[in-house]
Design a protein that fits this description.
The complex is a heterodimer of chains A (285) and B (131).
Chain A: E1 2-9, E2 18-25, E3 29-35, H1 41-49, E4 56-61, E5 64-65, H2 71-74, E6 77-80, H3 91-98, H4 107-117, H5 130-143, E7 148-152, H6 160-173, E8 179-183, H7 187-190, E9 196-201, E10 204-210, H8 211-217, E11 218-223, E12 232-236, E13 239-245, H9 256-264, H10 268-274
Parallel strand pairs in A: 3-8, 3-9, 6-7, 7-8
Antiparallel strand pairs in A: 1-2, 1-4, 4-5, 9-10, 11-13, 12-13
Chain B: H1 9-22, H2 35-42, H3 46-58, E1 62-65, E2 69-72, H4 76-103, H5 107-120
Antiparallel strand pairs in B: 1-2
Helix pairs in contact in B: 1-3, 1-4, 2-3
The chains are: A alpha/beta (285), B mainly alpha (131).
């Protein structure tokens, strides 16, 4: 679905954002893209959807270079940016005018999603609150029914019930044909929704792994005191939060926040343990 | 559904489904929600629910009719009870024992409270394993 090889990119030559970045994304998954502020999450997404062009390396979507923006590719991909723009028309009118660009657009699904989100179809989009506008665009993005759906911080600006509705709708929208990428820095919003976690740090992808497999390889625990064999440890009021190698004690739950902190803190023991095997969805070249 | 921090979500969903079966909400040979429906209801990734259903299938709690969906196995209640009993006796009970030891609580006190607890239950529990 998405195949990036040795991508180099920077807005200025002096400050490269990505160097030798490689990433493969497949159908049938919801990917969570995590990274610190300024790591380049949005820029990576823009490279994927053809809004930014690689300085070096390749970025292919549906088998074609993203930068070529072929109509056949654009008809099968939808990008929902963090900052959205809506014209002064009603939701119904917008759908009527724009759905034509997406051959698989599902009008019934749109009506259903708008109902779930409680967004009125007959009000001017510009008259809606920011959260309502965002929910409309999320509903539209999902109803476009494209193979690739890229959402940049979709839960920003949503209230608490809307976040729950978002998870519910996205959970039902995934099929074996579709690939969803959601970037976020609100890990808690999405941790039960994504099945694969992708971490962008230090100009490259430092993790692209199935959460189920991570749970089998790593154990997360809160203990009175960290030990020298821990892969990572962080002090907290409840004691030390640690990441350990999981020696066949069954799958626990992955603490994404702790894992993220460990990876962006470049915990050497954890990084070397995880690199003992090729990351799950990254075939050896 | 609120998920606990210390157990994989697919296992927690397996516990939830098992409980519905034990309580008779999903009777034997009835069709259970599709992977997508349950994923939507619980707001979780459908691949996670698929993993739950595969686990329950391997435990012979549910069975798959190709192209139609998943159904509650005829002997599901017995299977679930056996699994829950194992889990309670081997995992949960030792934790309770640990706390009892720490606080110096002896069995007679627990016994007395258990008898009291049983009288407060609205109906006699048909299964020995309800939470």
């Amino acid at each position: 679905m998405v195949r990036i090889r040795n991508l180099h990119f920077g807005y200025s030559r002096k400050r490269p954002l990505f160097q030798n970045l490689s990433l493969t994304l497949e159908r049938g998954h919801i990917y969570g893209l995590l990274g610190k502020n300024g790591a380049g999450k949005s820029t990576l997404l823009k490279n994927i959807v053809g809004l930014a062009f690689p300085d070096g390396g390749t970025c292919e979507v549906l088998g074609q270079p993203a930068a070529r923006r072929l109509p056949a590719v654009l008809a099968d991909l939808f990008f929902l940016p963090e900052e959205i723009y809506v014209p002064a028309v009603t939701a119904a009118k917008f759908a009527e005018q724009t759905a034509g660009f997406y051959p698989k657009f599902d009008h019934e699904a749109l009506a259903h999603y708008l109902g779930e989100f409680e967004v009125p179809a007959q009000a001017l989009l510009t008259a809606l609150s920011f959260g309502q506008q965002k929910k409309f665009m999320i509903a539209f993005a999902l109803a476009a029914n494209t193979s690739l759906l890229v959402m940049d911080e979709p839960t920003n600006g949503l209230d608490i019930p809307s976040k729950a509705q978002f998870r519910k709708i996205v959970a039902t929208a995934l099929t074996e044909e579709r690939c969803l990428i959601i970037s976020t820095h609100q890990v808690r919003d999405l941790e039960s929704l994504i099945d694969t976690v992708v971490v962008l740090h230090g100009q490259r992808i430092v993790l692209n792994a199935d959460l189920g497999e991570l749970a089998e390889r790593l154990a997360f625990a809160t203990v009175p005191e960290a030990s020298g064999t821990d892969l990572y440890a962080e002090e907290s009021v409840r004691g030390a939060q640690v990441i350990r190698a999981n020696h066949g004690d069954g799958a626990g739950r992955v603490d994404l926040e702790l894992l993220f902190n460990a990876l962006v803190g470049e915990a050497p023991a954890l990084v070397s343990y995880l690199s003992q095997k090729q990351p799950v969805h990254e075939p050896a070249l | 559904m609120e998920f606990k921090d210390n157990e994989a979500i697919y296992l927690q969903i397996a516990g939830y489904v098992s409980e519905l079966i034990l309580r008779g909400k999903w009777p034997p040979d009835s069709k259970i929600p599709s992977v997508r429906e349950l994923a939507g209801d619980l707001q979780v990734n459908p691949n996670t629910v698929m993993r739950t259903y595969e686990l329950l299938q391997s435990q012979e709690v549910v069975y798959n009719k190709r192209g139609i969906g998943f159904f509650v196995a005829p002997a599901a209640v017995a299977q679930v009870q056996a699994a829950r009993r194992e889990r309670f006796l081997n995992q949960e009970l030792p934790e309770v024992f640990g706390t009892m030891l720490l606080l110096g609580i002896e069995l007679p006190e627990v016994q007395r409270r258990y008898e009291e607890f049983k009288t407060t239950q609205p109906q006699p529990l048909s299964s020995p394993v309800s939470r």
